[in-house]
Amino acid sequence: MSEKIKVLMVDDEEQFRSTTKKILNKKGFETILAGSGEEAIDKLKENPDVVILDIKMPGMDGHQALNEIKKLSPELPVIMLTGHGALPSAREALVEGAFDYLTKPCDIDLLSSKIKDAYLSGKDPNKIEEKRVMGVMMPINEYTTLNWHQTIEDAIDQLRESFVSKVSTSRILETGHRSVLVVDDEKNVTGIMSIRDLLKLIMPPYLSAPKPSMADSVQYSPMFWTGMFSKTITQKATTKLKDVMSPDPFTIDGGASLMEAAYMMVDKKVRRLVVMIAGEVAGLIREQELFFEIEKILKK
Fold it and tell me: Using an 8 Å Cβ cutoff, are 144 and 181 in contact?
């Protein structure tokens, strides 16, 4: 990309503003700063290409500033920043016209990718660059993780929670997780516990053993399974995740193409990949992220 993108960074934390400006400038952006929503409105006269706007600020908050920005410059893309505990507010900003949102602290490479996507969103659709994996992944701080010493019951509780109060509007669609990441005591991803793993866990062990004789096979018939579902899951509830989890999922670099992610999912017969940026776990890309991107491409 030959143009230098002008970014307006709006945040009431002076240290965060100045540090982020230095990093973005090193990455080739031109960054201007504002410490409040009111100042951001004034800085629109400098014609930024993209606005990065913190939601929680004293005085005019991010939602109010977003509404004013959209009145004055409807086509100007705005990326909202929020703390993890204020995600519903950030998602609501999408309905109000924000381009996207990120949680703080955010990975700088992911932020850079979002800025480029936002900038290109107002350009000729035929010139829009295809997103990379880091541009569509679910950030790791939005995904459920459990320690490997926790139990099956803990995993069930967290999986159930991920399906509660999901957002669905004409602008956004959020789905619950089908799995939780399992980490060791050093926070390294060591495995994954999915709903499918739970179903495998409660299967009668003799189903995977050598086939019984004709006489014994009668007592193993499904006709004798009544009540076994409830009994088995109750018995397995305290089993530690490290004893039953699937191996850690396949990884993919955040800069990889979406086609590479799709190929890996098909080739490895998996529904999700762990995304690595600079050697660290940055997030996950799931089959639904690719599906949503397919839908967006067809609607452009």
Answer: yes
